[in-house]
Amino acid sequence: MTDVFESSGLSMKIFYDLRGNHDNFGVSEVGGMYDYFQKYSINAALGRAGNVHSVTLQSSGWKHLFVAIDTTSDIGLRGPTNLFGHPTDQLLETIDSELSQWDSESIKLLTKTSFGHFPMSFSAVTESGRSLKDLFLKHSLSAYLCGHLHTRFGKNLKRHYSSDNSHSLSEKYFQFNIHRSPPNHGTRSENCTEKAKTPKEFWEWEMGDWRKSRAMRVVAIDAGHISFVDLDLVSGPRKTIILPTFPLDSRFMQRMSSPNEYACESLSASSYNTIRTLVFSVSKISSVFVKIFDSRSGSFDLVLAQAMKKQEMNNSRGDLYTTPWNWKALSDPSPNRFWMQVEATDISGRSSFSHLRPFSINGLTTKVDWKWKEFLVMGCHMASLYHPIFYSILLSLLSLLVIPKALLLSSRKNYKYKNFSSYYNERSICRRIVAGAFWMLMELSRMTAVWCCLLLYVVYLTFFHWLSGHIFTETGTVGYMTRKGWFLKSSTGQQSFVDVPEVMVLVLPHLCFVLLPTILIMAALAAEKAAFHDYYISVTAKKEDDLGEGSEKFAKHATSHGLLGFCWSRWIRKILLAVCLVIFWTHWKSCWIILKAYDANPAFYSPVYCFTVPVLLIYVIYSTTGF
Fold first, then answer.
1. Comparing 223-237, 430-444, 598-612, which segment has the lowest mean pLDDT?
2. Dmax of the chain from CA atoms?
3. Using one digit for the tens of pLDDT, what is the confidence trace for 442-484?
4. 3-state secondary structure 488-549
5. Strand, coil or helix: what is 274?
6. What pLDDT digit, counting tens, does each position of 318-332 carry?
7. Cα distance between residue 162 and residue 8, in whole Å
8. Which region, left, alpha or beta, applies to residue 207 given φ > 0 means left and ψ of -120 to 50 means alpha?
9. At residue 560, what are phi and psi to the nearest 5 degrees?
10. Which of 324, 297, 293 is CA-nearest to residue 308?
11. Beta-carbon-side half-sphere exposure of residue 613 (alpha carbons within 13 Å)
């Protein structure tokens, strides 16, 4: 950053840096030995104290309020259980106060923008159940800019929030697409009176990471509307950066109030009369052209190509170019019929282009679908989903163990393979699968010792601690983790509890990808042995007590017959053993991560967590070897 100050000539005072979870790994005390942010950050060098700061800029009659928030915990656990922002009720009161500072003056030309490290999906709620989302909706922010996620999750890490469905059950947990409501839903009923209720809304724009993706964002505010351009600098610096500021991108920048503003002409005519773009360049720009395309025919047909003129009376950091246009002729009920691109050419003849993007003069929004990874990290509120997911998995595990055992004990039937074989003649694939799964679980419940150990292990993971370790530094405080969070001893010797959803990164993968597959694979191994045993008896036409006597004869008989020889090889068992290797690898990988993260020797700090699954699995493999 010192190089940036020196090369740009910009004052250090206009820069603001913000903590994230990586700045807080293993920080046991504010200002301590490992609190590098307090030693090396710009904010620390300038003496900026506190977790909330704001500044107001004024331009052309507008007030632009910027509020920076730091929701990182004062002390931070070592990774991977340090993943969420943790706003407190007191912090939300401070943020509310900063966002309200101009409300008493009835200023109409006001934008509110906030920025922080954590997106809403990775921000926990306070002890009273309040959230940053509710606060931002209350103030109807123009935008919330954030980081934390990485570009590998996708490039559409953006989300629009509105209060129209804020009381629905799903609102607390997830949103399936960038817009909760269908784009432009309800925009036909314009209300242009002064008492018309403005919808509560805000945009959340996550921008990716600089660390590996070299992602950078330039933001501009034009007549109250925020626009931005995202840059990928992996291949090197850009000679020219183009940021169109009007018309807005109809995918990510339109608001629910935009159609009403268009219908009621609440914006000044000058706001619509010109196309505007900012151009940043290391070389002198010789010409700037804007091109507008019509996509109604299925291809991009050029309908406007016009030169833009540089505005000399411009106080922005980039050069502002404008051109008049007949915007009324481009009014259309489709939000993505018209597309725009700006081309800038410098004095050396090198041309640069902006991204081709749709726009809607009517203020309508183009629907954009998330990919599954984008939905996972932006559409799901992880902190709220943790407990419902945990209890759902817990109920599933207990059902897999208890229901077959209870049926086996309460029924006089001796449920075996032949009792379920009739289901395999069913046309319904679902009934076959259910019957097969239930039979396998019945066979597992016959292995009483293994069944009891699995049940006790599930109960143990529910009520007792999973692991222990040094949660701050290699030689620092030792705490232990339960499915609720971390317990640790304070300096006074008393135990304190850190209720953090971060433990989900250890709890849920273990339940979903280790314990659940282990139960199913154990059941499959037990069922495979039982099925082969029944098959052996049927072929030899002998009683079970004659099994040992006829085994050698049966082996020769099976080898001499192709199909029987194939069955004798127990190829299903070999597949199951391969799956066991995958489970072993997944589990030990998790144990290795814990060992490195918390210096937790498995033999002393987490024996039950680390060894129960491998020991039981090895025992089941051994006990199902024979027939």
1. 430-444
2. 102
3. 889 999 999 999 999 999 999 998 988 888 877 777 888 999 8
4. EECCCCCEEEECCHHHHHHHHHHHHHHHHHHHHHHHHHHHHHHHHHHHHHHHHCCCHHHHHH
5. strand
6. 899 999 999 989 999
7. 39
8. alpha
9. -80, -5
10. 324
11. 27
